[in-house]
Specification:
Length: 356
Amino acid sequence: MTRRKWLGLGMALLPLAVAAGLYLLLPIAPQFTETAMTGGIFRVLSVALGWPLQWLPFSLTECLVVLGIPTAVVWLIVAIVRCCRRRASAYRLVRVLCWVIAIGLLLYMLLHGVNFYRRPAAELMGLTVTPHSADALAALCVKMATEGNRLRETLPENPDGTAAVMVDLTAAGEGYRRLDDTYPFLRGATNRVKPVLLSHWWSYTGISGMYFPLLAEANVNVDQPAWCVPFTACHELAHTRGFAREDECNFFGYLAAIHHPDAAYRYSGYYMGYIYCSNALYALDADKAATISALVGDGMRRDLIAQNEYWQQFEGPVQEVSDAVNDGFITSQGVADGVYSYGRCVDLLLAWEDAA
């Protein structure tokens, strides 16, 4: 291969070098990441992508998966066949693939990856995260159960006794709007969440929602129990606001849900908050967790049982592979406990209660 061709391949790898540099250097400069990357480049790019795309009534991410991936596979097969016939085509294929992969990884870093290394949410909010006793956690569980029971009584029911919730995903960001003045870093241009049409099949992966960075698009599994959808929507919107860590997105998802004008959102926030807190309490003191479980009302208890039954039907190898991939991805971003980091939102919830 000529020197000119080697230079062409080298140029194609420049975006990859920039992405690698950000991955290695940003963890040691959180203030720079906060100001220049999350507050600067990410915000500009995410608004430019997310604001216009949110008005599409369908999930563009789903379209890319359903149509884009098969198209790309067919194109790759055709390109490989041509390469077998002409040597020159092989160089062009490699160069195109290098450009696509390098630019894709750079865009991922700018639209999501950098946000793993910004200042922690607790620091941004002036919260002090400290170890708490089982009693403190139990008190928070009682609050979650009490508020959940109260809101559950205001909701209609399905024939099977579960909550009949109609979720308006176009207004998912209303809870964040009520937090904007107090926490300006939660302002965002994207306030609509996209329902995924193939949600039932998506449930086999065990995933309830997804943020696709390259489109700055928040997607939600609408086949899951309806009372879980509002919290998931608020969680995914936290990603559009520049937060990548799952525990922080759970925390902000909870805050946005309980501040939402729609009672269905508020119930979903307290409902999911109770699940995270009671799971954490069970690990600390199973007896206390069992005692507080008795405070859960009949309606909320039916919802908890129905949610467990829903996800149990999708357990299997697909979900196991999905969990392993998700765990590996989160760990690769510097989050040592991987998928278990989702539950660390309890530390933030306790710190929030202390500051209230």
